[in-house]
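Lay summary

Proteins are chains of building blocks that fold into shapes. Our project writes down both the chain and a compact code for its shape. Here are two examples, one after the other.
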Amino acid sequence: MSFGQGGPQWGPGGPQTPDWAALAEASESRTRRRKWLMIGGGALATVVVAAAVAIGVVSANSDNTSASNKPAGELPSTADIPGASEKPAPSFEETTPPPPPDPMEFISSVKKDKAPLSAETLFPGKSLTSGERVYKKGRTDSTKKCASVTQAELGTILTKNGCTQLFRASYVKDNIAVTVGVAVFDTQARAKKVNEQAKKGLVVSLPGKGVPSFCRTAVCRGTYNAYGRYAYFTTTGFTSDKDVTEKERKVYTVGDDLARFAFGQIHRRGEAQASAAANAPE
């Protein structure tokens, strides 16, 4: 008996045992073919999906127009692109901190010059060093009757211009002593007038605390100057009451040292108040 192709066969000698090895190999071959077909089909599907996504992206970016193959020179300028702004970018002015206050503002008028003022603030410490020269400080004092501690000519000028206080301090080095005086006015203009008018007269010397009497009967050197609302003076001479002449350069040096010191103290007063104003919270 026989079956169609692919079925079991028996020969003349009766039924024969099937070739199981051949059948298994054929089955495995068919399985491999189906597996590769499935893999290949999946890869193809992936490629198709990727292509579809790419097409979708191009379409979305092309604003419903086809991609252009024109050279760059024929493409629209930036101004023609929708959404391009013709207004300039916003600009901001540079901000700079205000300049620090001028120290002169604070020492030119009683309205702004509010820092504590005394003989000790003007003449601090027990000595003064100027270069290699060291001066020992003697007495200090202050008075609201400015004319009472000056010679008549200078006293009249101080009173006429409204002197409100006069501070004095004395210093000595070797046989030379000096008294420095600082007169206070309400305005810079009044102090300036005193400096212009003070041609004669001295601040009376102030002895004591290690400084002997000087410049009471002898000729002494005097200086006058003004800074801000302050006028400052020096009276310098020998502790031996010897007259001062123009040849006595050491006396000039001592007087100039103390005049610079008085100027510096007044200026530092202005600087301190200007710095405090600059650092004060708004």
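And here is the second example, written the same way.
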Amino acid sequence: MPATASTDAPAADTAVVLVNLGTPDAANTAAVRRYLAEFLHDRRVVDMSRWLWCPLLHFAILPLRSGKVAHKYASVWLPEGSPLAVHTRRLAEALQRELPQLRVIHAMRYGQPSWRATLQQLREQGIERVLALPLYPQYSTTTTASVGDVLDAAPGLDKRMVHDYHADPDWVAAVAESIRRHRAAHGPGEHLLFSFHGLPQRLAAAGDPYPRQCEASARAIAQALGLAEDAWTLSYQSRFGRERWLEPATADTLTALAARGVRQVDVVAPGFAVDCLETLEEVAMMLAEDFAARGGTLRYVPCLNESPAHAQALAGIVRRELAGWLPADP
């Protein structure tokens, strides 16, 4: 029989890196300003002319927004640090337990631990192969592609990247089960809202697959839950700037649901692998307060975070990616 690769055999020269967006090191103005400066300098995130954008960023946006954003971070900060950093680290540890034959670590596209520096360190430590798994279930040129840019530029490594897992059956099942457990504990809500991070409409019009993948994810999860078409809605949150973004907006959708007399809405954010500022402060706090002012109750369903089902789903994705890549067993 021909030799075949096995991810059950030791592969000490292979690393799996979970790559998330990033987060400030502290919930203060200086740390937030450093983080936002790195994040908003990426041409994948803001594609304006640098002659226009850099002065606007450094002399208007950062001075005006850093303190306000720091206050938001402070409202959700954990004893161990930023929620995104804490949950990403714990998820990498959980995935390591699922894949003891591989080296599993995490990195951040912006902030620490730096994705670029991590790749350099892995090469210096004798790692030959790197599988990057961006923690974005749905692919976008503004997020996943930026992770790929850094990976492509890293010399001396055999490299591969998971581009998306928006329809992975184990991931869909894990999200659906988390919603079932939430509803079993708190009672079924009147409506389920899938809230994804927004994207400028012009990027979608130019071919970014993100909205199509968001729609496919929401529909697959709804089908796994056995929901009727009128029992759920998809929307987009976290708009930034004045241009048109993907619609409908989550805030507008909640306003419309309240106007229809819906008083109890469950909100899940399956575009986020782990909880972060956008889920904990924007949805679970700010939008919940706005909906309460309209006489309703918004119940936020947490992200999968470092749950066993999440780690198992990602382990399945890694095994499939590595199956045809690792050297064959003798």
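What can we say about the second shape? Confidence is low (pLDDT under 50) at residues 1-5.
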